Structure formats: C-alpha cells, structure tokens
Amino acid sequence: MHGAFEDEVGAAGVMAAAQAREDWIGEQPRTVEELFSRTETEPAAREIVQSEALKVGTAIASVCAMLDPAVVVLGGGIGSNPALLRPVRETTAALLPLTARIETSMLREQAALHGAMAIALREARDTLFFRRGVRAAAL
Fold it and tell me: CA-CA distance, 66 to 11, in Å (whole number)?
C-alpha cells in the first residue's frame, strides 16, 4: 500500500523531480541509480538528493519524536544509497536534540524481499506448529 510519502520519496518521485529540471549539464538521468551516481559532478543531481534527504530526514525525525527508536535502518534502492546517508543524518540531527542512530541496510534493494520472506516463514511456522496459541505436539 502506497501513500503520498512513498510516492514522493520513492523512485517515481525522484525521477519526476529530475525530469522537472532543465539545468542538467548533460542528458537527464534515466534511472535513480544514474542520478545518485552523478551527485559528485552534477549540481542538479546533488540538489535532488539533498531534497530527498530533507524529506526522509524530516520523516525520521517525526517518527523518532514519537517512538524513540535506538536505530533507524534505511533500506531499498534509494534508502540504502550511500549518497543519502550523511544528509539524512544531518537533517534529522538539525530537527531533534537526540536522535536515533541512522544506518543503511546491507540488504540494499533486497530489504523488502527479505522482510517479506521472514514474515511468510514466521506465518508458515506458526500455522504448522501452533494451534490457538498452544504449541502442537512434536511428531
């Protein structure tokens, strides 16, 4: 289920921001990966990543203010991109006096897949070995 935040900070939102700009030094990037790879040499790419970091950092600060997690892990193809980590940390630190540790997932774009597999395995195990909250007898 997607909402406005996912639409804004996801790949479609990032690429829409890239396509809305006319100040590219070369051709517009065709993928998010290409855009992120051009942050060192392309001011437009750098500004889009900074804008992305502001949005993600603000969201993290909002969650941290309510839930006070010890760590926040950024995953997915965008969230785990190294170019995003420092500006997200800076944005969050500017908004909160004490913030959670913010790290990138080693799973990168596979994070959602691994999470879905873990949930499916847990549900399968619970279905097979537990009945009404009581562990089924071992065979």
Answer: 27
Q: How many helical (H) and strand (E) elements, i.e. helices and strands, does the chain have?
A: 7, 4
CB 125 within 8 A of CB 119: no
Q: What is the pTM of this model?
A: 0.77
Measured distance CA(109)–CA(79) in Å, rounded:
9
Alpha helices in 22-139 (DSSP H): 32-37, 43-67, 76-79, 82-95, 111-129
pLDDT per residue as tens digits for the range 109-121: 777 777 888 889 9
- If asked whether residues 91 and 134 sit together in one domain, one would say no
Tens-place pLDDT, residues 57-85: 999 999 999 999 999 999 888 888 889 99
58 in the same domain as 46: yes
- Distance, in Å, from the CA atom of 29 to the CA atom of 36, rounded to the nearest integer, reads 9
Residues 61, 120, single domain; the answer is: no
